[in-house]
Design a protein that fits this description.
FAD, 5-stranded antiparallel sheet, 8 helices, about 300 residues, alpha+beta, Uridine Diphospho-n-acetylenolpyruvylglucosamine Reductase, domain 3, 19 strands
């Protein structure tokens, strides 16, 4: 299809009509890196997501779904086809002890909402920078808690463009992954089953975890969060630190001096810098300790 035809059709599918051409994705990632999207849209309803995905499937146009771009590296060549950023789908509501949040809501905001409702179980998520969609996609976790511990169901868009509600047991949660990724599904919302609690105790726990995060993580710089999964029997950050890699820099990206499990953009860094530094760290840790570091961060796009 011609670019003008795709543009015209997409603008008719999205209520706001906002479709950006050749938009730099570095504006929307936590690393402040990433090339351009051919077509970038911000759906405001589930139906707009569904219509756009069906349009892409029917017309053979590639499409990519993004949340808030936290645990993500988009390559410098950008992304071909249609990119949907779901950060305008942010509604959070509750019924009894259940909280339902749309995919674009920040999981931090969901944990704060739970505090207001005096519901306990999501305190661990008070420092996770990702969206609800991303959190379900990778079974996000921190400080001993994981999404699988509190999720009861998810509304997803299937790879064929149909909507389907899945129970937790349908999602095959494992450490930092779920069947959502494997099945090519798109999270539209998640429902979390929590327990009544004392709001003072909930807030105290959240304050404690926030302090731990702020004191240990390099939040003063753009980053993609924790770069590597925890290898069995080890801690990735400790292996990287013991390899003498803290402060190692390629281009504008550096292994954080504050927390070796993070890589920060200290100025002018590119996605290629990130990828090359990741490869260097993996190679060095493998040589020194015989441990393969698997990335937790998702790397997508074109070189």
């Amino acid at each position: 299809m011609a670019e003008k035809t795709i543009l015209h059709d997409l603008r008719s599918l999205v209520y706001s009509g906002e479709v950006l051409l050749d938009e730099p994705l570095s504006k929307y990632t936590f690393t402040k890196t990433g090339g351009k999207a051919d077509f970038l849209i911000f759906p405001q309803t589930y139906e707009e997501v569904q219509k756009t995905v069906r349009f892409a499937i029917e017309n053979g146009v590639p499409y990519t779904i993004l949340g808030n771009g936290s645990n993500l590296i988009i390559k410098d060549g950008g992304i071909r086809g249609i990119v949907l950023i779901l950060t305008r789908l942010t509604k959070i509501s509750h019924s009894g002890n259940d909280i339902t949040a749309q995919c674009g809501a920040a999981i931090i905001d969901v944990s704060r909402y739970a505090l207001k409702q005096k519901l306990t179980g999501l305190e661990f998520a008070c420092g996770i920078p990702g969206s609800v969609g991303g959190a379900l996609y990778m079974n996000a976790g921190a400080y001993g808690g994981e999404i699988k511990d509190v999720l009861s169901s998810a509304l997803v868009l299937t790879k064929n463009g149909g909507m389907k509600r899945l129970k937790k047991n349908d999602l095959s949660f494992h450490y930092r992954k779920s069947s959502i990724a494997e099945n090519g599904e798109i999270v539209l919302e998640g429902t979390f089953s929590l327990e009544p609690g004392d709001d003072r105790e909930i807030k105290a726990k959240m304050d404690e975890l926030t302090f731990l995060r702020e004191s240990k993580q390099p939040l003063e710089y753009p980053s993609c969060g924790s770069v590597f999964k925890r290898p069995p029997g080890y801690f990735a950050g400790k292996l990287i630190q013991d390899s003498g890699l803290q402060g190692t820099r390629i281009g504008g990206v550096e292994v954080s001096k504050k927390h070796a499990g993070f890589m920060v953009n200290v100025g002018g860094g590119t996605a290629t810098d990130y990828i090359n530094l990741i490869k260097l760290v993996q190679k060095t840790v493998k040589e020194k300790f015989g441990v393969d570091l698997e990335t937790e961060v998702k790397i997508i796009g074109e070189d």
